[in-house]
Amino acid sequence: MTSTRFASDPFVVGKSKPHPEPRPIAAEESLCPVVSHEWVNAEYRHLVVQASPKALAVTPGQFFNLLCPSPDEGELFFRRPQSIYRIDREAGRLEFLYKCVGRGTHGLAQLEKGDELNMVGPLGIGFHLDPGWRHIVVLGRGVGIATLGPISQLARENGVGVTAILSARNPDFVMADALFREAGDVVSVLDTDGSSAVENVELILRQLIAEHRADAFFTCGSNRLFMLMKRLGKQHGIPGQVAMEQVMACGLGPCYVCVRTFEVNGKKELRRVCIEGPVFDMQEAIGW
Length: 288
Ligand SMILES: Cc1cc2nc3c(=O)[nH]c(=O)nc-3n(C[C@H](O)[C@H](O)[C@H](O)COP(=O)(O)OP(=O)(O)OC[C@H]3O[C@@H](n4cnc5c(N)ncnc54)[C@H](O)[C@@H]3O)c2cc1C
Ligand code: FES
Hints:
Elements: E1 11-12, E2 28-39, E3 44-50, E4 63-67, E5 80-83, E6 86-88, E7 93-99, H1 103-108, E8 116-123, E9 135-141, H2 144-147, H3 149-157, E10 161-168, H4 177-183, E11 185-190, H5 198-210, E12 216-220, H6 223-236, E13 240-243, E14 259-264, E15 267-272, H7 273-276, E16 279-281
Helix pairs in contact: 3-4, 5-6
Bound molecules: flavin-adenine dinucleotide and FE2/S2 (inorganic) cluster.
FE2/S2 (inorganic) cluster (FES) binds next to loops.
């Protein structure tokens, strides 16, 4: 793939020279060599790319819009949004953890080491970490687990304790527990033994609140778990942030495909998940 296919030149990692003056826009299109691309289990793949300096400025909760190769004879018209799973600034690498679900992700799965991935980003507004917090709780399920990796990394780098509650169908789908263990404590809850039931997760959260280990809540990937955190956050005055996964088209703001309703000070408000999110205040977000 060469840069001449594009209307404006993408940044080609390993070939383009970094721009001497940072350009005012925060995102760019870049061609990133694939460093590794492995199956994690029957459904998820772990993709590592060498990234451009601008892409490496990504913050936890932000995402990239990936141009996935077509898996068949047809075209793929839209890019696919994927949040960043791990940032390795020292090695200049970015990592994605994604589920193969449809044509885009099955096409993406064909990329091999040495191929180039075309990415646009970093996009959206990510998580924030308040300097006053000493211990946070992250609660993820399915693809949502990937999105919570970088905020856990950031918390650890800032000396903030992390409890990660990872919800999954069975032990094979408790992904990334090594990354979360590096950041703090991990509690896995599973469908197979019933421990992922909302009532049980509620007991775990209530225990953390009682132990003063829940200064803030972060969640992604499950509506019922989001609603649980929202309810407990409201009851106990614990601030929370939710990363929303919403079907997108442009990922940049103009198409309005990703609009969702929010409730702000008792009034309904429409917001675009791609540009005003994907991370939102938990009390303002409405379940899906
Ligand atoms: C901000 C954001 C971050 C995400 N991060 C991750 C991640 O880290 N790991 C992961 O596995 N998945 C993530 N997703 C979901 C991922 O984008 C979809 O699984 C993927 O787009 C499906 O594409 P597909 O062509 O394989 O499936 P199809 O179902 O064939 O997709 C068809 C169309 O719908 C859109 N679409 C379908 N499902 C979703 C969805 N859940 N969210 C948004 N758009 C969707 C696609 O972009 C495409 O335009 C994220 C979604 C968003 C919005
Ligand atoms: S996806 Fe186009 S405005 Fe959000």
